[in-house]
Amino acid sequence: MIRTRTDGDVRVVTLDRPEARNALRPPDLTALREAFEEPESDERRPVTYLRGAGDAFCAGADLDAVAALDDPEAFARQGQRAAAGIEESESVVVCGVDGPARGGGVELALAADVRVATPRATFGEPGVSLGLFGAWGGTVRLPRVMREGDALDFALSGRVLDAEAALRTGLVSRVVDDPRAVADEIAAGESNALAAIKRRIRDRRDDETQERAEAAAFADLHDAHADEIARGRGE
What we know:
Layout: E1 2-7, E2 10-15, H1 26-35, E3 47-52, H2 63-67, H3 72-88, E4 92-97, E5 100-102, H4 104-111, E6 114-117, E7 122-124, H5 138-145, H6 148-157, E8 161-162, H7 163-169, E9 174-175, H8 179-187, H9 191-202, H10 207-224, H11 226-233
């Protein structure tokens, strides 16, 4: 269900269950979490690209599995751990959404650092129609990504957003024909700088603590790249 491979400077993680629109069962969530744990040194890349196989990104939780749950809270926590693994990955995670993203699929995308959609992408949180809601960290991350009013409208209504609406609300940052190209573009940056930027922007500590850490990270990068900076002044 979860496939990983390296391709140049990008590590590719694929949700690979296209016959079910990449819907996720409990073992798949475990495998996804493991896919974002620190890989072996020869597989490490500055950027990880998350995608879905076939004509969908991810339909979310497999409803057959949800109906059979003995411990729904444990399942929700398992999904939260999978999403946290994406968010906490040491590499920059670019999520390419091509086709539908529903429920848990939206929540996995929310955990990525950069979300990019193709024109055929659509997004929806249909759980409300079943008396449920996204519990893989979606209620935490959604209002960080979208304005609170947009987040409430999206989650409460269960309506589907097309790619352009997702762009307007901030759910995605770009609409492009080839999301993988965005991963390659970001991977062209210097790897230590990419990691430092991610750590600083993702920092949830108080502002003063974050600003001290930001200044320290800037100084470290400045010292490490003094020669390149000096050459850049002359260009």
